[in-house]
Write a structure and sequence with these properties.
This protein is mostly helical. It has four helices and no strands. It is 61% helix and 0% strand. Helix 2 runs antiparallel to helix 3.
Length: 96
């Protein structure tokens, strides 16, 4: 595949999609900032309100109970700690 073919197949559709969406393709997209100082408990509270309640999921009581169990074990940790397999394995070991 030549450079021109790559541009036609990969970059041109992205460029057109940006224009159709009303954005300027020359401006880089907003990159989400790193989450600093947010605990797992805070994140799960926001998740419950923004997703479980907002979407009207079928059994919010069960979901809330499961989230409560996760918060009891991992709630004080920073959200970034969940990227480390040690914390996840510790959590799984407690519930086996």
């Amino acid at each position: 595949m030549t450079l021109k073919q790559t541009a036609e197949k990969v970059w041109e559709p992205r460029f057109v999609a940006e224009i159709v969406a009303g954005r300027d393709p020359r401006v880089p997209p907003d990159v989400p900032k790193s989450v600093v100082g947010v605990t797992v408990a805070d994140f799960l509270d926001v998740y419950y309100g923004s997703y479980v309640e907002a979407e009207g999921l079928r059994d919010p009581v069960t979901i809330k109970g499961r989230l409560k169990a996760v918060k009891a074990v991992l709630g004080d940790l920073s959200v970034t700690a969940l990227e480390k397999p040690v914390e996840i394995l510790r959590f799984k070991a407690m519930y086996r």
